[in-house]
Specification:
The protein is α+β, with helices and mostly antiparallel strands. Helix content is about 20%, strand content about 15%. Strands 4-1-3-2-5 form a five-stranded antiparallel beta sheet, with no helix packed on it. A hairpin with a 3-residue loop joins strand 2 and strand 3.
Length: about 140
């Protein structure tokens, strides 16, 4: 029997272009739950940061801040605009690889996704929505 989580991961694997670059975790970091990333426009990054109880690895380039979250942190969740969710922490066409601007203590790279989601909703003036239709 195949569960819904397995089907979602298989579908994402089919859509992920192999030529894209991926955010690399710092040496010594492990990702036991896999890695995805949430990108926000650079001006929002400093506004989100103080609203979080824990901050994982954060990367930045001139245009975006990228927050590492556990895989499938978009499951039944619609991230507020203008945030972009990246399954597998793959970078879209970007001129350069973002720099690591925050590394948490310990070996786990994640920013907790629910506090990040709520912080993004707050700074964008978006009402949180907790569910969305799921298609397989």
């Amino acid at each position: 029997m195949v569960c819904l989580d397995t089907l979602i991961r298989l579908r994402r694997g089919q859509r992920t272009p192999q030529a894209l670059r991926r955010l690399a975790l710092p040496e010594g970091m492990t990702a036991p739950m896999g890695c995805d990333a949430v990108a926000v426009p650079a001006p929002l990054g400093p506004r989100v940061l103080p609203l979080l109880p824990r901050v994982g690895c954060v990367y930045a380039d001139g245009e975006h801040w990228w927050w590492i979250v556990p895989s499938d942190s978009d499951y039944a969740l619609r991230w507020p605009e203008p945030a972009r969710y990246s399954a597998g922490a793959f970078l879209p066409d970007t001129p350069s690889v973002p720099d690591l601007i925050h590394k948490p203590g310990g070996t786990v790279p994640y920013t907790p996704p629910i506090p990040l989601y709520l912080a993004l909703c707050r700074v964008t003036g978006t009402t949180p929505t907790w569910t969305r239709p799921i298609s397989a």
